[in-house]
Design brief:
Radius of gyration: 53 Å
CATH class of one domain: Mainly Beta
Number of strands: 20
Distance between the termini: 151 Å
Strand content: 15-25%
CATH architecture of one domain: Beta Barrel
Oligomer: single chain
CATH superfamily of one domain: monomeric porin ompg
Shape: elongated
Largest sheet: 18 strands, antiparallel
Length: about 1250
């Protein structure tokens, strides 16, 4: 028997004997241990001889191995495979049968089983598979191959065929290489797997060197199939024989096969090319070329652009450089430039004409699509339609171009055409869900809502039938849910929309725009953190470029610029769309803008200007961003710079009206208070071709706001007639706008027509009963007309109806509470807002106003300053009177105003020479020094000159009613001047709080007067809501005559008398009732002096006043005043012991006052007058009430008494003018006329203010007040 026939028989006998169980042993043996070192060496030697096609040598070694271990599976398998290759299937089957009995599922058994099956019963099927693969029918071959090997890829030599055929399919190559790499790592000694892997890797340039490296290692192993490896190596090199990159592989190959003459010649040729390449690589321009192309490959567009531009300067005929620049421009969205570059590359590189022509077509197509999309965005649908049709002529089935065409058709009201196109897009085997969304919206607009449900359902059903896999169907269902959600959102069905969006994300967690829609919905529901979580979860699931873009857009909508920038920065430049690039530029400009605002808040204007300039450069192609930057320049006080940013952009794009940008420019003109320019701009813009109804309405709205702003300014300036004219010039169609009606209410309120203002507010409420602004206006009018409780209830109702996130309305409610002195309720509203919106300036300002209303002025000042910083960060534009925080702080700081003032005051009262006549001149010097926000210290040094004329003492009849002359006679007397002079000194402190005020002062009557004394007083006033009460306790000089004020000297004896002071108290109460005010004043006093009778006084004064006519800067009031006086003694005479002041025992009068006060620009005025009637009674009075002896000596004479009274009137006027920011001058006069009383007074004054007066001048004027009038 030949040896080759004996060997398998011996092996099978040995194997059979080894598998028979001995007594007491189980039939199955335990798992086999790893081969011994000797066995491993034998198996390796067998593989080596097998690789050298020496089956006989391999067989002998395997027989030796089986003598050592008859059950060794690897040896049995190898022996079985040798039998198959030797065409001895019967012997192979015997070995396989024994292996199945021993280890039916073992890898060696399975490998031999596959090899036996393919060599026998499945031989024809395998041949068919190979034939199909060679015929290019890779998909069918792969399908039959997988059916042939249901357990997966086989081992051994079949693995090479299996993976080679699998790799012939589009998706199979990647899988085949991955599996071969994994199996080669698991079994590095299986060189058949390594060979199969190398064969696949060497097919493609990207993996060729890796494959060559594997082949080289196989040739270096003694057990490797060197011949096959060298064949593949040679075949690979011959296919790339002109590429210098493989020079080293030719060198290595020739070391293994030195007699290959073709390889020798190729190596020599490549050597020359390598040397030329080395010289080329030393060229900086070439280096820039290679660097740029590599950067372009990695998506580093900015760096690639720079490198390729550098290369182009020296390599202007390098098609790759020019084509690379074209790719950069294409990815930057600069399609026209890209097309020109590709055309030039094609001229320079005709061998690659197809490549460049294809890229030209791509650039042309996407350039046309981009122009069409831009035309739609600019409101030019006809142009968009034409461009979209051009694009579709190049790519008829392109979904992007079709979508743009559909949008253009819809914008032109060509709904039937659009619907036909959209339905065709949806009817495709793979329906276009974007088209479905557009069609759903179109049907909604056409009021065909009932068609939407069936459309979605049929689309879902058809998609379900065509879905290729469960994952695809899941994605499609998710998209449909998203479409349904968008439909529900248009119907304001937020809850149902949210449920569908959440379910859509569950099905397709990697859908960026579904997440974006849901995140925005959460944001609109005041749950921005949930929206952020939705997008962050999306990034964790699928950090794709689109997901990053959607996340950046959402974060930008939250004003989280830094987070948005960080997310977008991770998108490679090569993957960025036009929208991504625009967003990146926008975010960069926003960061610069934010930093500029911060610098402005810190007072670093120069640095802020530099950043604004940089931001404008960054956003040079973004007119909306330029408008935002322009607002900052306007806020900085440089409106021309801000306006030029946008006007310059418009001038650079004259071919298109850019009506949306013109609207933004109009807003800038409004912010810069360029009303005339804005009016012309609106007129010009409305007449432009192509304007839509929406845009025309937007310009009309700007025109309305312009009119309302002008009206507000005219009201503030007191020009109510002009305001009325401006307001009623608004077109009638806009006079039903709530803003117009509420401005009408403001105009009527400024004119004192509170009922008319309420009527305007009610006109708004007739159509919008829940309008908060109108209800608060009505509440203000109710308060002004005395209906405080009703007004307060209405404000509380508005608050109850206002949503928590309606900040403006809640602030308006808080302002009303504050104005009505309900600070606790106002604080409850604002404190909640401050917790949720701590960085809003308007919230902080209102907190300051509440603190100020409570009297916490230091806290208020700190809050106003914080609000000013917030306004800077918000880029709040200042109006003519500054920002809200600035106005509030300025108003608060005015409480700290100090002054130095002086005046000249002249008063004249007719009477008897030297006795009752009086000419008085007062020259007060007044200094007022602030102390905090609530107090002022003040000082007086008032010079007083009194002159009663010359007493005709030599004439007894004329002088008998003066001093003691009637009792002692005038012997030896001559006429004498009755005059006096002195300086009154005083100091005091005045406190002015939120709810109360008081003043305390102490001083002297003029030092130098005949009689002088200490005077002073304390006054306290309390605010009691619409009422007030005050008490005044004082000791004051009586200035009616020379005797009462300065005292006099008797010309006969030289004795002095007079110097009257009133020691008394006044109680006052006043209350507003509607527009009227009522008051009552009760006083009691004790009159004392030197050598005079002590007198007692009781006074009552009451009345009301009513605004006859009132505007913001003017008002006329009138009313009725009643007075009652009672003095215990008649002391109005000038003989010794009398005080020389009017003191009737009964005085009753009524008067009707008329008061007109107002201001205009720097002037304020007050004109006063009154007319009345009085009834008086005076007791007769002895000549010498304090000296009975003189009374008797004179013969008991008495001054006559009796009834009196009659008609009286007064006239007066004061004006004040601010002629410099710190200087004020004024003048005034007053005359009183009644029976026996006709004084005249005139005055002029000047005042210096410690701080510049920035607010409108106060009115009525405030004359300098001498200490004698306190």
């Amino acid at each position: 028997m030949p040896r080759h026939a004996l060997a398998p028989t011996l092996a099978l006998l040995l194997a059979s004997a080894a598998t028979q169980p001995t007594l007491g042993q189980p039939a199955a043996s335990a798992p086999r241990a790893a081969p011994s070192a000797e066995m491993t060496q034998l198996l390796s030697a067998a593989r080596m001889w097998e690789a050298k096609n020496r089956a006989d040598m391999a067989r002998g070694i395997l027989e030796k191995a089986l003598l050592i271990d008859p059950r060794q599976p690897e040896a049995l398998k190898m022996l079985g495979l040798i039998e198959i290759r030797s065409n001895r299937p019967v012997e192979a089957e015997k070995i396989l049968r024994r292996m199945r009995e021993r280890d039916p599922g073992g890898p060696a058994t399975l490998e031999l089983e596959d090899a036996y099956r393919i060599a026998t019963r499945d031989k024809r099927e395998m041949a068919t598979v190979r034939l199909l693969a060679r015929s290019g029918k890779s998909e069918e071959a792969a399908a039959r191959l997988e059916a042939l090997f249901p357990r997966g890829a086989p081992g051994g030599e079949l693995a090479g065929d299996y993976y080679r055929i699998l790799a012939g399919t589009p998706a199979g190559r990647t899988r085949a290489i991955a599996e071969l790499r994994r199996r080669a790592r698991q079994d590095p000694d299986d060189l058949r797997l390594a060979m199969a892997l190398a064969s696949l890797l060497t097919d493609r340039a990207a993996t060729r060197e890796e494959g060559l490296d594997i082949l080289y290692r196989i040739t270096q192993r003694p057990d490797g199939d060197r011949k096959t490896a060298l064949d593949i190596w040679r075949r690979t090199l011959y296919g790339v024989n002109d590429d210098p990159a493989y020079y080293r592989w030719f060198e290595r190959y020739l070391k293994e096969v030195p007699d290959d003459t073709v390889a020798q010649e190729t190596l020599a040729s490549l050597g020359q090319k390598v040397e030329a390449q080395r010289r080329l690589e030393a060229d900086p321009a070439y280096q820039a070329r290679q660097r740029g192309l590599a950067q372009l490959e990695r998506g580093q567009l900015g760096d690639a652009d720079i490198a390729l531009q550098n290369a182009y300067r020296k390599r202007r005929d390098d098609a790759e450089v020019i084509g690379g620049l074209g790719l950069v421009r294409l990815r930057q969205g600069r399609h026209d430039e890209a097309r020109e570059l590709f055309a030039r590359a094609m001229e320079l590189d005709p061998d690659n004409r197809n490549k460049w022509r294809s890229l030209m077509g791509t650039a042309t197509f996407w350039g046309t699509v981009a122009k069409a999309r831009e035309a739609n965005a600019q409101g030019k649908p006809a142009q968009a339609e034409a461009l979209a049709r051009q694009a579709l002529a190049l790519q008829p089935d392109n979904a992007s171009a079709q979508s743009i065409l559909a949008d253009a058709l819809i914008a032109q009201n060509k709904a039937p055409e659009a619907e036909t196109l959209l339905r065709a897009m949806i009817a495709r085997p793979q329906p276009d869900l974007g088209a479905l969304r557009t069609l759903v919206k179109l049907l909604q607009d056409l009021q065909r809502v009932d068609e939407i449900g069936p459309l979605i359902a049929s689309t879902e059903k058809r998609m379900g039938g065509t879905a290729g896999s469960a994952s695809e169907l899941r994605q499609l269902r998710a998209d449909l849910l998203s479409v349904q959600a968008e439909q529900l959102l248009t119907q304001q069905e937020r809850s149902q929309a949210m449920a569908r969006l959440e379910e859509s994300i569950r099905l397709a967690p990697d859908a960026p725009w579904t997440r974006f829609t849901l995140a925005r919905l959460y944001r609109d529901l005041a749950l921005p953190a949930l929206g952020r979580t939705v997008m962050e979860d999306g990034l964790a699931v699928a950090p794709s470029s689109e997901m990053r873009y959607a996340t950046a857009l959402y974060l930008n909508s939250l004003d989280d610029i830094d987070a948005a920038s960080e997310v977008l920065a991770a998108v490679p430049q090569a993957e960025r769309s036009d929208g991504m690039r625009n967003l990146a530029s926008n975010l960069s400009a926003q960061r610069l803008l934010r930093d500029a605002r911060r610098l402005l808040a810190e007072g670093r204007d120069a640095d802020a200007r530099a950043l604004l300039q940089q931001a404008a450069s960054e956003a040079k192609d973004d007119p909306h961003m330029l408008a935002s930057i322009g607002r900052e320049w306007i806020a900085l006080g440089e409106p021309d710079t801000g306006l030029k940013l946008v006007s310059g952009w418009l001038a650079a794009h004259p071919a298109d009206p850019h009506l949306d940008i013109r609207l933004r420019y109009g807003e800038l003109l409004a912010a810069a208070n360029r009303d005339d320019a804005l009016r012309d701009w609106i007129t010009e813009s409305r007449a432009m071709p192509g304007i839509t109804e929406e845009q025309r309405a937007a310009f009309d709205d700007q025109s309305l706001r312009l009119a309302l702003r002008r009206t507000d300014r005219q009201i503030a300036a007191g020009d109510l007639g002009g305001a009325r004219q401006t307001l009623y010039a608004v077109p009638a169609a806009q006079q039903t706008d709530r803003r117009w009606l509420l401005t009408l209410a403001d105009l009527r309120e400024a004119g004192g027509d509170y009922n008319g203002a309420a009527q305007a507010a009610r006109a708004v409420l007739a159509t919008q009963p829940e309008d908060a602004g109108a209800r608060l206006t009505l509440a203000r009018m109710l308060e002004r007309t005395g209906h405080e409780d009703e007004a307060l209830d209405l404000v509380r109702t508005v608050l109850a109806d206002t949503a928590d996130d309606d900040i403006d309305t809640r602030l308006a409610v808080a302002r009303r509470f504050t104005a009505m002195r309900h600070e606790d309720e106002a604080s409850a509203v604002v404190d909640d807002l401050a917790r949720r919106y701590p960085d809003r300036s308007d919230v902080t300002v209102q907190r300051g106003r509440i603190a100020q209303s409570r009297g916490s002025f230091n806290d208020a000042a700190a809050l106003y300053r914080t609000a000013q910083e917030q306004e800077q960060r918000e880029s709040l534009l200042a109006g003519p009177e500054g920002t809200p925080a600035g106005r509030a702080l300025r108003g608060l700081e005015s409480r700290r105003q100090g002054q130095v003032a002086t005046a000249v005051m002249q008063s004249n009262k007719s009477g008897d020479e030297g006795i009752s006549k009086l000419h008085a001149t007062e020259i007060p010097l007044y200094v007022r020094i602030p102390h905090g926000y609530t107090g002022h210290m003040f000082f007086h040094a008032d010079t007083v000159l009194l002159d009663a004329g010359a007493l005709p003492a030599n004439r007894l009849s004329a002088a008998s009613e003066f001093g003691k002359i009637a009792a002692l006679g005038n012997a030896g007397l001559s006429p004498s001047q009755q005059h006096d002079r002195g300086v009154a000194l005083a100091a005091g402190y005045e406190y002015d709080g939120a709810y109360n005020s008081w003043r305390a002062d102490v001083g002297t009557t003029p030092l130098g007067f005949t009689e002088q004394t200490v005077v002073g007083g304390i006054r306290y006033r309390a605010e009691l809501g619409p009422a007030s009460a005050s008490v005044d306790v004082s000791r004051r000089a009586v200035t009616s005559s020379l005797i009462s004020y300065a005292g006099a000297t008797d010309p006969v004896t030289g004795e002095t008398w007079g110097g009257i002071v009133r020691n008394g108290i006044h109680l006052r109460y006043a209350r507003d009732i509607g527009r009227a005010g009522v008051f009552a004043d009760v006083g009691a006093g004790l009159y004392t002096g030197h050598n005079v009778v002590t007198n007692h006084e009781v006074t009552v004064r009451t009345g009301f006043d009513y605004p006859v006519w009132a505007q913001r800067n003017q008002r006329v009031t009138s009313g009725l005043v009643l007075n009652y006086w009672h003095y215990s003694d008649n002391q109005r005479f000038y003989t010794f012991g009398h005080g020389g002041y009017y003191s009737p025992q009964r005085y009753l009068s009524f008067g009707i006052p008329l008061d007109w006060t107002g201001r205009r620009q720097k002037l304020s005025w007050r004109f006063q007058g009154s007319a009345g009637w009085s009834f008086t009674y005076e007791d007769p009075a002895p000549f010498y009430p304090t000296r009975p002896d003189l009374q008797q000596l004179a013969g008991n004479p008495v001054h006559g008494g009796g009834s009196g009274g009659g008609f009286s009137y007064t006239l007066g006027a004061t004006i004040e003018y601010t002629f410099a920011p710190r200087w004020v001058a004024g003048a005034g006069f007053q005359i009183d006329r009644s029976r026996d009383y006709a004084p005249n007074r005139a005055m002029a004054w000047i005042r210096y203010l410690f701080d510049r007066q920035q607010d409108p001048v106060p009115f009525p004027p405030t004359p300098v007040r001498p200490y004698s009038t306190y």
